[in-house]
Amino acid sequence: MKIKRKDLLGIEELSRKEIETILETAESLKEISERAIKKVPYLRGKTVVNLFFEASTRTLASFALAEKRLSADSFNLSSSSSSVLKGETLLDTARNLEAMKIDFVVIRHSMPGAPHFIAKRLEASVINAGDGTHEHPTQALLDLLSLKEKFGKIKGKKVLIVGDILHSRVARSNIWALKKMGAVVSVCGPPTLMPYKMEDMGVKVFYDLNEAIPDKDVIYVLRIQRERQTGGLLPSLREYIELYGITLERLEKAKKDVVIMHPGPINRGVELDPRVADGKHSIILEQVTNGVAVRMAILYLLSGGKSAEISES
Q1: What CA–CA distance (Å, rounded) separates 203 from 187?
Q2: 3-state SS, residue 203
Q3: pTM for this model (two decimals)
Q4: Helices 169-180/137-151 angle, 10° precision
């Protein structure tokens, strides 16, 4: 199956079938990373610009690796090295890049809706690598792939997302993604870091972590995003750790086979005890591995590729 869209801007607009196609394609492409020569010619002749206006390690690195493994030409451009510092607008930056005959723009921006804004104005395909507190679709897709590999199916699994829900684009994308795949989603965090009418997204809201944990199959721990917080919404770190930190002692209340996930980077000793992050319940490194495969799949499908063509080649 093909993906009949020019851009990948968010999970909210994707159908379940499109999500399944991306996951199926990622599973097929994952094998490439195990080869001695980790390269295929699927995007030979295509040019990708990674336009990152926010700091990134995992997302930028995995997109860059995905592009290289598909044989695309790519280069990275940050706000500190672009004409934005000279007053150039986002649209002018994108249009000047497109005048160089590029095929893809992978954009991370602090402003919600920035990828949608440029996608409407460019012929090149636009991929959202995170827009403010709005969405982070490729993170949600790699999380789905990790859960699919772990459980075989996602439908019916009980997933608890813990932490700063208010500022988390990862939480929003994951809620939409998990619900479309049939999971039962709950959230837990301080009242000051919980969006108004959170229940309207079809999730159960907890404020007591000890009450939320016992029957969950997955505990998805969010990073505390101090860079996005204003007005003292976050309790003291000591209080946060006491009430919402995932420790070995707290996991004694969880299922014996509970899965721990985190989008990274981890604030070790704050939202997640190092013994849990590195322990038997964690699939955090599997998430990182799957990030490359999912981003390869998205680039491949947006360029017009089909899942079936991978196994035939």
Answers
A1: 7
A2: coil
A3: 0.94
A4: 50
